[in-house]
Amino acid sequence: MSDQPDVELEARLAEQEEFEPPESFVEQANVTDEGIYEEFDENWPDAWERAAELLDWEEDWNQVLDDSNEPFYEWFVDGKLNASENCLDRHLDDRGDEVAIEWIGEPVDETRTYTYSELHREVNEFAAALREQGVGEDDVVTMYMPMIPELPIAMLACARIGAPHSVVFAGFSADALAERMESADSETLVTCDGYYRRGEALDHLDKAREGLDNVGHDVTTVVVDRLGDERTVDHRGSELDYDALVDEQDGAEVEPVTRDAEDMLFLMYTSGTTGKPKGVKHTTGGYLSYAAWTSHAVLDIKPEDTYWCSADIGWITGHSYIVYGPLALGTTTVMYEGTPDYPDKDRMWQIVDDYDVNQLYTAPTAIRAFMKWGEKYPEQHDLSSLRLLGTVGEPINPRAWKWYYKYIGNEECPVVDTWWQTETGGMMITTLPGVKKMKPGSAGPPLPGVSADIVDTNGDPVEAGRAGHLVVNKPWPGMLRTLYKNDERFINEYWDEYSVPDRDQWVYFPEDGAKIDDDGYITVLGRVDDVINVSGHRLGTMEIESAIVGVEGVAEAAVVGGDHEMKGEAVYAYVITEDGQEENEEFRQEIIEAVEDAIGPIARPEAVVFTHELPKTRSGKIMRRLLEDIANGDELGNTSTLRNPDVVHEIEQKVQGD
Ligand code: WTA
């Protein structure tokens, strides 16, 4: 093995635009029949029963799809089930002693293994504890936790008693936590004392407490002792110790609550165009069927596999493809607490090697980092257990795709580039790995039963090769049902743009741009709204702007996403200061900190540019496109419609001078 990339091979790969699924994969794949596309077309929507049939139902549905009140679709109507029963109880007879969760801590050698029986026991105990604390059906429980086993345990405990969960990413700020708890009227919080990042124990509890200070109602807080240090709960307040609660419930069993297919399983807040995060509502029957079906058909998960998705459970990817999909299928799901570069840049490959991981699902931003670090890290390990690779979260450039295919998959694993969103619940556009050829850079055709198009601003399909807006023309089981307590915003955000209600045409607009080729393969180009995608994380520019204008001395701010080699996009902030405010480094830091406080370190601006004006149209709208061009160092677009064309060049000079 050498540190030098194989030049001949790279040249061959660079030219290759299509890749057939490796035969060794196809031979054993869960789905291999190309006819499945037609079957879904001809038998739509009933073909979706195939997804629901992967689950155990207490009562069968009477109708697959109820579309009588569009766009408030209902799936598997009258069906009854419980998600925790589907992820745990039903596996006990056959797979009780098999591993459900392999948890790998950041400190090397700190691991925990939960068999299905053990996980079942702990989930039951915590479900009993939550009940005893007064949590009832339909009460929203918030989790503000990093990647520790108690997070999926708490999620499944909630599912067991019919209490929807709302998981807030641990990297979000105290303010972000408070906003989400207020919005969901959530009176219970599960959090922890801290966690490890690159060898350092980080505090988490103070941040949670700070958030709670800004919640207007009483909250019961359960604290998990992750660090095992002296500092634990504040017994004077309403904080409770997780271990003590669970110990009290030793061996308790909680009958899974019968939930209607359409009952809410969870809420997940995500960024949108306007300032306030959107509470995306997912249901028990449709969502779980969809997560299980896509895990089966796309990730090719089988019960005997060891499967690893390296996302954080604080995002939708972790919900669907660390917790619900894999556990519904009874497989072993790996959960890793740390970062890919600690203690060294081979940590991921060490884990694949040690645990004989069969499928790896990660993000393009991670793959770009691996590529930069070089193939010498994967080459130190035996990765031959891998059978399938996946990516999600942002477009993947063909070079990164090919690197992943070659150096991680050894040209023997299909790569699935999966396009989807928090709102879609699961994958929508990707190749079926045992059926379709792959084209690096293009996610692929819509999955069977999913109907997508690329349209122009009139809603008419564009020619192959032309950029347009991606739309979804038919409902699907995993779709969001509404925005929490805000049906009106649900319609405005997703359906207004392209639907023609008079003609009963309901079209979902995900706010992504895309193009399609002659084979029907879709290349997703990125967001067309004011959402930016930093390392696969969705951030609303408005949310960042409102944090910045909250800083004393700031008069106005505009935030855009600029291209970034590693992160995909990065945050660029253009700031107008008030008279008398000095534009110095100290003030710049103050602005950066304000963004971190309001949202979290992931939203930290790459650059803060002071300017005395922002480019505006005659009607006073900020021309963000020009600000993006400046951030990217691109040729500037048309400036003739501006009220103040000179300012653009002024800002450009400032940025270039920085
Ligand atoms: C982007 C993450 C290109 C897209 C599951 C979408 C992608 C947003 C891909 C949703 C992909 C996700 N190719 N772009 N394979 N996957 N995106 O809600 O812009 O965090 O709208 O869900 O990520 O981000 P979200």
From TrEMBL:
Keyword Cytoplasm on entry: no
Limits of the Acetyl-coenzyme A synthetase N-terminal domain: 36-87
Domain AMP-dependent synthetase/ligase: from-to ranges: 89-476
GO biological process: acetyl-CoA biosynthetic process from acetate; carbon fixation by 3-hydroxypropionate cycle
InterPro entries: Ac_CoA_lig, ACAS_N, AMP-bd_C, AMP-bd_C_sf, AMP-binding_CS, AMP-dep_synth/lig_dom, ANL_N_sf
Gene3D superfamilies, alphabetized: 3.30.300.30, N-terminal domain of ligase-like
E.C. number(s) listed in UniProt: 6.2.1.1
Domain AMP-binding enzyme C-terminal positions: 543-621
Origin: domain of life: Archaea
Family recorded in the similarity comment: Belongs to the ATP-dependent AMP-binding enzyme family.
Designated name of the protein: Acetate--CoA ligase
Species whose genome carries this gene: Halovenus carboxidivorans
